[in-house]
Design goal:
This protein has helices at 12-24, 35-44, 60-71, 86-94, 107-136, 148-161, 178-187, 206-214, 231-234, 250-262, 288-294, 299-305, 322-337, 346-354, 360-374, 386-398, 404-426, 431-438, 442-451, 456-463; strands at residues 4-8, 28-32, 49-53, 76-81, 99-102, 168-171, 196-200, 215-216, 228-229, 239-243, 264-265, 274-275, 279-284, 308-311. By secondary structure, the chain is an alpha/beta fold. The chain folds into four domains: 4-132, Response regulator (Rossmann fold); 151-313, Rossmann fold; 316-390, Orthogonal Bundle (Helicase, Ruva Protein, domain 3), CATH 1.10.8.60; 405-452, Arc Repressor Mutant, subunit A. It has a five-stranded parallel beta sheet, sandwiched between helices. Strands 7-10-13-6-14 form a five-stranded parallel beta sheet. α3 links the parallel β3 (49-53) and β4. α2 packs parallel to α3 (60-71), α6 packs across α7 (178-187) and α13 (322-337) crosses α15 (360-374).
Length: 465
């Protein structure tokens, strides 16, 4: 949340007093002693709120407001006014000011007005970002692909999007596009202009998950220097996407169930529940039915979330979509990296079609981006795809005299090991970042590194052979 505040007041003592109050509440404060100075600061900084004195030498508060509007700058402006100038302050609000506050004002009045303005600015920015995402994420259209599996997914998304109150559970392997599907549901709904808040349940430490989701009151615990809204309150009126819901601890599952039942959240340290209307879209790459049977996932929560189940097929189950994905990704990479790659040679496409893609669409994206970087020009070669070229060179001996099941299992293991090693090297062996890149939880990455005997010394030696 942007907590940058600019105080604009020609009275230096008054500006310093206000700044001291705000800084104690963890706001970042700038000061300007004229409207002209404020305009220079606004163009350099990123302020969510301007607290402006109405009467100042020069162009004054009203003039500053008009100048901000003319320049198309986005910030919430609060007018400070004396009793005799209320009518002028009201006129300022009609001209686009967010609010006004009458002098002399108390500390509580000041903080309440600032808090409202900051939250309003945050919501405005979220809506702008959502609209931009709507334009750029596959042009706001359906998920990429023409396979039967993805057609069924798109049909389900269209049906679900009609109602903003239906909860959805999306399943599928890591990298299949579960978050893309969740965003599509939101974008095709009537709540498209409302917030879409994504939360990765496996990436947030267990002791912080409750405060992230439900928020907290000032003083609720050490470090809670100011009140903070949780993800659910921020998503009010829109959609909250709970990714990796299968990694949510049982005690948090119980609290989430209560939120769904009551349609309200109670912040940590608070007494009063906050009512809300939020669609919940949950996703997992785990077998949630098995988790319910084992008692690792609450069955009552499962039934609440799984109103409409959507399964995203893996990329190897819809290989006919690989050329379409490749074309789309190449188009994005050309724009991002300022290149002009025109499609893929047949040998590369054949290798892609033969590859198992344990990392699914995410792996294809990473593979193509790496190839773009390795290529010195606008032509991609097979040797720009190390995992494909090594797979091609070794296929003869590797597949000899083995059952299809064994071939599939060993190919997947080898591909997983190679992908993990490359990701670790790319992330300088930072396991947290690597887990995030591969879209697996930290424990899974550690287990697989142990299973595959992956360590920095051995991998570094082997990569230099």
């Amino acid at each position: 949340m942007n907590r940058n505040i600019l105080i604009v007041d020609d009275e230096e003592i008054q500006a310093n007093i206000i700044a001291d109050i705000l800084e104690k509440e963890a706001y970042k404060v700038g000061k300007a002693y004229s409207a002209e100075e404020a305009l220079k600061n606004i163009s350099k900084g990123n302020f969510s709120v301007l607290l402006v004195d109405l009467k100042m030498p020069g162009i004054g508060g009203i003039g500053l407001l008009k100048a901000i509007k003319e320049k198309g700058l986005s910030t919430n402006l609060i007018i400070m006014t004396a009793y005799g100038t209320i009518d002028t302050a009201v006129e300022a609000m009609k001209a686009g000011a967010f609010d006004y506050i009458r002098k002399p004002f108390s500390k509580d009045e000041l903080l309440l007005n600032i808090d409202k303005a900051v939250k309003s600015y945050e919501l405005y920015k979220q809506n702008i970002n959502l609209k931009e995402e709507l334009k750029t994420t596959q042009n706001g259209k359906k998920l990429i692909g023409s396979s039967d599996g993805i057609k069924k997914v798109n049909e389900l998304i269209d049906r679900v999007a009609v109602s903003d109150s239906i909860n959805v559970l999306i399943t599928g392997e890591s990298g299949t596009g579960k978050e893309v599907a969740a965003r599509e549901i939101h974008f095709r709904s009537s709540s498209v202009d409302m917030p879409f808040i994504a939360v990765n349940c496996s990436a947030i430490p267990e002791n912080l998950l409750e405060s992230e989701l439900f928020g907290y009151e000032k003083g609720a615990f050490t470090g809670a220097v100011t009140k903070r809204d949780g993800k659910f309150v921020r998503a009010n009126g829109g959609t909250i996407f709970l990714d990796e819901i299968g990694d949510m601890p049982l005690n948090m599952q119980a609290k989430l169930l209560r939120v769904i039942q009551d349609k309200a959240v109670t912040p940590i340290g608070g007494d009063e529940p906050v009512n809300m209307e939020v669609r919940i879209i949950a996703a997992t790459n785990r077998n949630i039915d098995t988790m319910v049977e084992r008692g690792d996932f609450r069955d009552d929560l499962y039934y609440r979330l799984n109103v409409v189940p959507i399964h995203i097929p893996s990329l190897r189950e819809r290989k006919e979509d690989i050329p379409v994905f490749a074309e789309y990704i190449i188009e994005k990479l050309n724009e991002k990296l300022k290149k002009n790659v025109q499609g893929l040679p047949q040998e590369i496409m054949s290798a892609l079609m033969s590859y198992s893609f344990p990392g699914n669409v995410r792996e294809l994206e990473n593979m193509l981006e790496r190839a773009f970087i390795l290529s010195g020009d606008d032509r991609l070669r097979l040797d720009h795809f190390p995992i494909l070229s090594s797979n091609s060179n070794e296929n003869g001996g590797f597949f000899e005299a083995k059952s299809l099941k064994a071939i599939s299992g060993e190919a997947k293991k080898r591909a997983e090991k190679d992908a993990i090693e490359k990701a670790l090297i790319e992330m300088n062996w930072n396991r947290v970042k690597t887990a995030r890149l591969l879209e697996v939880d930290y424990k899974t990455l550690r287990r697989k590194m142990k299973d595959f005997d992956i360590n920095p010394h051995y991998t570094a030696k082997r990569s230099h052979k």
